[in-house]
Structure formats: C-alpha cells, structure tokens
Amino acid sequence: MNMIVRIILYIVLAPIVGGLLEGIDRKISARMQRRVGPPILQPFYDVKKLFKKQVIIVSRSQTFALIPYLFLMILTGSMFFAGMDILMCFFVMSTAATALYFAAMVTSSPYATIGANRELIQMMSYEPAVLLTCVGFYLAEGTFNVSEIAASGRTDLLFMPGFFVAFVFILTIKMRKSPFDTSTSHHAHQELVKGLTTEMGARNLAIFQVTEWYETVFLMGVVGLYLINSNPMSIIGAIICILVVYFLEILIDNSSARMKWEDMLRITWIFTLFTAGVNLLVLMLIRL
Amino acid sequence: MANVKRSPWLLHYDGSSCNGCDIEVLASLTPVYDAERFGVINTGDPMQADIFLITGGVNTQNAKTVKQLYDQMPRPKVVVAVGVCACTGGVFKDCYNILGGADTVIPVDIYVPGCAARPQAIIDGIVQAVELFEKRSKEHDEKVRSQKKGSEVA
To answer: Which of A25, A26, A28, A35 to mutate to test the interface with B (most CBs of B within 10 A)?
Structure first.
C-alpha cells in the first residue's frame, strides 16, 4: 500500500518539483550573469504554451518514440521511489534514453541526426559511472534493493565517496549542462540549431520537457540515496545534499564552454576509473 | 492564470542585412535589457518559435528560405520586421537582387523602423508582437475548439 502511495506521489509531484527546480535553475543562472531572469514558474508557462500550439508533424513515428521515452522514465522513477532494484531502474532509464534517440533519428533531419548520434556518445560516456554506482551500492550494502539501502543503518556516502563524485560528474551530462551539452542544450544559439530536439515542436517538445523533469527528480533521488539511512533526520541531510549538487551543476554550467565529444568521452571515463574504480577496489578490500 | 504571453520564443533570421540590426537584436538579449525576464528565449529553431524576427531585405536567394522558415513555424505566430531594410528594402531597395521588404514574401505584422533599429525600439516591437501573439493564440484556441465541435457533429 505504502508503495502505491509513493508511486502516485512521484507521478504527481515529480513534474511540479522538476519544473520548479528548472525555474530556480534559470533564475540562478540569470543572477550569475547579472540579469534579473525569468520568473520561477517560467518552465510551466513554456510547457503550457507548447501544448496550445499547432502540431506540425514531421514524422508520425516521432511521437510514437517519444511516448515510450516519457513512460519508461516515469517507470524508472516509480520503481526507484517504490524501493525496487536500483540496477533495474538504471536499465529502464537507458531504454528510455534509447527511445529518445529514435525520436530524434526518425525525422532524418541532419541536425537532429547529429544530435542523436551525440546523445549515444553521451550515453556511452556516462553509462560506466552509472553501472559502477549500482555496484558500489551493492558492495556497501549487500543489496541492490533501494528500500533496503535506504533503511540500512549506514550512510553510504562514507563508504562510497568516489562513486558519489563520479555520479555527480556524469550528472552534468545527464542534465544536459555545459561543458557536456553536445546533443542538445538549454541555452540558445548553438551550431546544431537545437540538436536532438530540432524537429520537436509544440506538444512533442512539451512531452520532452516534462520527461526531463521526471528524470531530474529521479537523478536527484539517487543523489539523496547516498545519504539516506534509517535515521529520519537523514532526509534533511539528503535534501541539503541535493540542493548543493544542483547548485554545483548550475555553477559548472555557467562557468564552462562546451567540450568536444572526444574530450568528453576520455575525461569522463578516466575520471570514472580514478574515482569510482579506486573506490570499488577499496570497498572490495574491506569486504575481504 | 498564466497565458501564452508569458513565453514568447523568438526566431531571428538575418536576411540580406548589413549586420547592424542583428547586433542590436542580440544587444536587446544581453544582461543590460535582459529580455529573458519576460520569458523571451532566442531559439534558433522555427519548429519551436512563436515570433519571427527578420532583419534585412529579401533577395532572390533567400526568399525561399524566409518563406520556408515562416511555414515551419506552428500557429499562432507573429512576424516582426526589424530595421528599415526588412520594412521596405531600405537603401538596397533598387538593387538588382533585392525583392524588397520582408512583406514581399511573408505577411509582416509589426514594423520596427530604424537604421539600425535601436534595442529599445526592438523591445517595443517585441512587446507589441507579444500582445498580438496573445490575441492570435486566443483566436487559434477558438478555431481548434470549433473544429473539435464540428468533428463531433459530423
């Protein structure tokens, strides 16, 4: 019963929280550039407008690919907040990302195609760190089950700081923040028009936007999982940690230029190897 | 309740402009004027744009492009011609390759004169365009509603 309530809460609240986070993101970004910035509710105004606009269909299969993207992402988050297998959550998330790749690819627009290819490279870059995170949780807790990890007595961050740093690093890719926003960016003016989302207009772009909010909330949930333990006070710590990580992402976004994909792939893998990899070895030694 | 007025996304196209107006358009998006506080985003994508900002006159080569960009924009949409070249053709009016202002190929709603148009004038033009965008949006909603009703009757 508790599980169903949590799933419903996630489905209802995640877009609201995700939208607010994006609004705060845009406000803070604007302040960092000495601007006033849009209102906090701006992302909701945008999505509302997008739903009202005329639907121009570039390719019917685009919507067909975007709907699984939305639903698989909701499934990912629901599984996570229901306390199921974390490894499975990330597998479903990867499937959702593949659906997005197809949504961009079917339009056969050159910009969307290059954006989609770059999205695959981005997936290739962050996937090792994501999988290692799951392995890290298993080594630290002896289980992949989210509810058991959350209910255990220990704070995982103390056992897996390397995994945490690697995960925060790849969050920059996952949240489409500079310097790793090669496939599509939240900022205007780039060499690929809008990259991945070039051929998405009106309702389809709104679906994409809402899915991103679901995704953000799920990823922030994973960040929180590092801190949550059986002590209820740890929830406050997790929320503070999430806000700090989010602020850090905004700071990185505003203080760096875009990187070439070769550099992104190399840096991400090396970084993952040296943080998560070393942490993995240490954890295995402790277990032995 | 929020309406579409809160989120006008721009598409900026440089016709055969001398770049003077383009610089002023970009100037009105800088922190000094900060158009994003009204929800304005300078998107490069016609599929996602609401307001089409065009600078410079239309020539024989870009006429097709301008028309295509306009067609790719989903309704409701508003066109703003920025600078005297986009309004009438300006100093290039009698050139052999110039067809004239933007209104020779697409319907222009708001004219922002000036050579180059000042950022204040551009922002004023966008504010007027936003008003028109809201009006068009309402008309569009009406149309969609009546079409739905029509299909139910049929």
So the answer is: A35
Q: Using N-to-C axis directions, what is the helix angle for A2-32 and A42-52, rounded to 10°?
A: 110
Residues whose CB falls within 8 Å of the CB of residue B97, separated by 6 or more in sequence, listed in order = B16, B59, B60, B61
**What is the helix (H) or strand (E) element at residue B41, kind and residue range?**
strand B41-43
The ipTM estimated for the assembled molecules is 0.86
Nearest to B143 by CA among A140, A194, A52: A52
Domain ranges of chain A: 2-287
Poorest-pLDDT segment among A22-36, A181-195, B61-75, B95-109: A181-195
What residue type is assigned to position B76 of the chain? P
Q: CA torsion A62→A68→A74→A78, rounded to 10°? A: -170
Nearest CA to A226 out of A280, A126, A277, A152 is that of A152
Query: Residue A201 is nearest to which of B38, B44, B74, comparing CB atoms?
Result: B74
Residues of B in contact with A193 (CB under 8 A): 44-45
CA angle A115, A260, A275 (to 5 degrees): 105
| Positions of E strands within B60-122 | 78-82, 98-100, 110-112
User: For A228, how many CA atoms within 13 A lie in the half-sphere containing its CB?
Assistant: 20
Task: Enter the CATH code of domain B4-153.
Answer: 3.40.50.12280
**How many residues does the structure list for chain B?**
154
pLDDT mean across residues, chain B: 87
Rounded CA separation B132/A30 (Å)? 27
> pLDDT tens across A204-262, in order?
999 999 999 999 999 999 999 998 888 888 889 899 999 999 999 999 998 988 888 89
How many residues are recorded in chain A? 288
* B107 Cβ under 8 Å from any chain A Cβ: no
Task: Tell me A145's DSSP state.
Answer: B
Are A200 and B39 a contacting pair at CB < 8 A?
no
Rounded to a whole number of angstroms, the distance from the CA of A38 to the nearest CA of chain B is 4
Closest C-alpha among A226, A211, A243 to residue A14: A211
